[in-house]
Amino acid sequence: MNEPVLIVRDLKRAFTQGGVTIEVLRGVNLSIARGEIVALLGPSGSGKSTLLQAVGLLEGGFEGSIRILGEEAAKLGGDERTRLRRDALGFVYQFHHLLPDFTAAENVMLPQMVRDVADAVAMGRAADLLGALGLAQRMEHKPSQLSGGEQQRVAVARALANRPALVLADEPTGNLDERTADVVIDEFLRLVREEGSSALVATHNERLAARMDRVVRLHEGLLE
């Protein structure tokens, strides 16, 4: 049997503010299978972003085990963590964070070029992804020339550019109106499935979470 893409065991994270210790994560356990899309539900401030930052290897200060594609993150040095994050993970945030001076296609090419993918190959991959998201006619447009929904679809394409094993999405439609959010999440889920990736999607929207394969809830620092 294939090992899960992600295995989290007894993950803890605490912050100290004004001499008071706040336990945000109190022993989180989570496993995500290959090809599985999991919704991470919880209200604002429940620790969803903190959990995604841990899994995304974006900051330290955590206790516990995070295994991505069988590699234990705690045992990796800085360069190895960067390599694993670059090669195995894709990220979509509430705000698209596209580079304003780059076209849609160039924004999707960029993470590939970091991996030394040839320009022509990177452009081909960008064209395929943007075309699959209905943006074939918008490839040469810069973010300021795109609608909010189009910008977020470019962000989805960028996250999938390097064929990540796991996509981490933090409130990916939280900045969109309901109708646009429905379109973007449908296209996100379709493309993630077509690409064969797994995903962990943080949201507070029960209706959107119901479209995913499984729902877990973060409550008082633990998953239910």
From TrEMBL:
One of its GO terms (biological process) is lipoprotein localization to outer membrane. CDD domains: ABC_MJ0796_LolCDE_FtsE. Keywords: ATP-binding, Cell inner membrane, Cell membrane, Membrane, Nucleotide-binding, Transport. It holds the Pfam family ABC_tran. SUPFAM superfamilies: P-loop containing nucleoside triphosphate hydrolases. Belongs to the ABC transporter superfamily. Macrolide exporter (TC 3.A.1.122) family. This is ABC transporter ATP-binding protein. The lineage of its organism: Bacteria, Pseudomonadati, Pseudomonadota, Alphaproteobacteria, Sphingomonadales.
